[in-house]
Amino acid sequence: MWSVASAMKTPEKDAPADERRGRKASKETRRQQLIDATIDSLAKRGYAETTMADVAEGAGLSRGIVNFHFESKEKLLVATLQYMADEYAAHWRAALVKAGEDPARQLGALVAADFDRSICNKRKLAAWCAFWGEAKSRPTYQVLCGARDAAYQNVIVDLCRRLKEEGGYDFEPFSTALGVSAMLEGLWLRLMMGPDEVTREAAHASARDVLASIFPRHFERAMRRDRKIA
Amino acid sequence: MWSVASAMKTPEKDAPADERRGRKASKETRRQQLIDATIDSLAKRGYAETTMADVAEGAGLSRGIVNFHFESKEKLLVATLQYMADEYAAHWRAALVKAGEDPARQLGALVAADFDRSICNKRKLAAWCAFWGEAKSRPTYQVLCGARDAAYQNVIVDLCRRLKEEGGYDFEPFSTALGVSAMLEGLWLRLMMGPDEVTREAAHASARDVLASIFPRHFERAMRRDRKIA
DNA sequence: CCGTATTGAATGAATGTTCAACAAGCGGCC
DNA sequence: GGCCGCTTGTTGAACATTCATTCAATACGG
Fold it and tell me: Other C-beta atoms within 10 Å of A60: how many?
């Protein structure tokens, strides 16, 4: 009994459909399928209301299957967070490499990567936020979220240093880097919670605007007058 | 049976002790006591693991009492969030009034208020974050959190406008205001999750640093060289 | 003593986990 | 090719636990 809903719930499943159904699906494929369903459930119902039954139903499988591929609910959630952290890190690292050597281009690419559709959509943001909410009281989550931030922020600190040298700014690189990366995370939060008038593009533009204030010799201001004054 | 721990768990209980114990405690006092215990539990165990029994135990009362003063767990949590939102709003509004008429002073006061000890401590930040994590899937929470942000951000937008006029900056007020308020929220997140080396003072300094970049004619840079280069 | 706050055991619902049964693939064997 | 086990993924019902809620009994204040 395959529910049609589960097959088209997330538009980003680009794996061949015949690989995901039937008994032939490999172990790894099935694990990924369950992780996807977990993210769906976290986004739809929140952390507290996410149940094994809901995850299984979302994946179009039966209840017992989750404990077969993952030992427990805890392990499933950790694997899900690990997957999101890996995906996020791979994404910005790729963007960084593609940006070349210029630090301003690199910082711009990093920020753009944060607001890329594949990373920054309501589904994933809601899942991230669900984990953040529990991170305080769960060392495992805190480590995974912390690892995410640490590497990312080291890169931003380094970029701030190089931009400071190039542009002759007088900010404190560490402090500014902390502010910038915090702003990016805060914008994610706004995107997830705020009204719909805060779009991905608006958040990105806002980040670029602040970058233009901090690094005036490296970032151009968007200078668009088409914004509605609310 | 009064647990000693509950009496000294939170250092900020300045209400007279004899008002909080015994049967004389008024309805309102008892509600507040339970709300405090709820914040404690959210901070210590996270949203998902917060139970009625834990709240009652934290307050030094018996299990059934919560359903007497609040009808249900849901109502207790909403009341708790409402309390935190009210407290937060009252705090920054007071800071705003006290700052006088100068927009730069006002913005500085607003930012300082965000990092004030009474508001910005691990206990409350963890509770806020717990609610954020569930807000996506709970309209009631989303409304309360959203209301918090909306008023706050309108003030910041207005301050950005006035500062722009005064200083002749060329940023877009709305966009910059979004970035600034997002940064403040992001710093809260960092304070809660990040390593202990990110202190309240460091976060505040970071915010001031970015403000100095955005409004160079209104905010002085801290220019401290005592920061360790990590 | 009356009314009300409080207690704590009982209840019932929700849910994570287990497990015995089942089915699908698969390789060997006649 | 067809039959037979064997391994392994899968199922769904049964089980155990946790927890919000209820409520009759109790204790305290007035």
Answer: 18
**pLDDT tens string A153-182:** 999 999 999 999 999 999 999 999 999 999
Q: What is the 3-state secondary structure (H, E, C) of A134-193?
A: HHCCCHHHHHHHHHHHHHHHHHHHHHHHHHHHHHCCCCCHHHHHHHHHHHHHHHHHHHHH
Say how far A19 CA is from D7 C1', in Å. Answer: 21
Number of continuous H segments (helices) and E segments (strands) in chain A: 11, 0
Q: Quick check: B98 CB within 7 A of strand D? A: no
Residue B230 lies in a domain: no
Judge if the beta carbon of B206 is closer than 7 A to nucleic acid strand D.
Answer: no
Nearest residue of A to residue B192 by CA position?
A136
Q: Sign of dihedral through CA atoms A135, A139, A143, A144?
A: negative
**Closest nucleotide to residue B70 (Cα to C1')?**
D21
Instruction: Based on the fold, state whether residues A60 and A88 are members of the same structural domain.
Output: no
Domain boundary (B48, B69, B90) is at B69
Range of the domain at A146: 77-214
Q: Are residues B46 and B116 in the same domain?
A: no
Whole-angstrom Cα distance, residue B90 to residue B98? 12
A46 within domain boundaries: yes
Q: Is residue A219 part of a domain?
A: no
Using the CA of B69, which nucleotide's C1' is the nearest one?
C5
- Say how many domains are in chain A: 2
Same-domain pairing of A193 and A81? yes
Q: Is the CB of A225 under 7 A from strand D?
A: no
Task: Find chain A residues with C-beta within 8 A of B202's C-beta.
Answer: 175, 178
pLDDT tens sequence for chain B (230 residues): 334 344 343 444 444 444 565 666 688 899 999 999 999 999 999 999 999 999 999 999 999 999 999 999 999 999 999 999 999 999 999 999 999 999 999 999 999 999 999 999 999 999 999 999 999 999 999 999 987 778 999 999 999 999 999 999 999 999 999 999 999 999 999 999 888 889 999 999 999 999 999 999 999 987 655 544 44
CATH of the domain at A33: 1.10.10.60
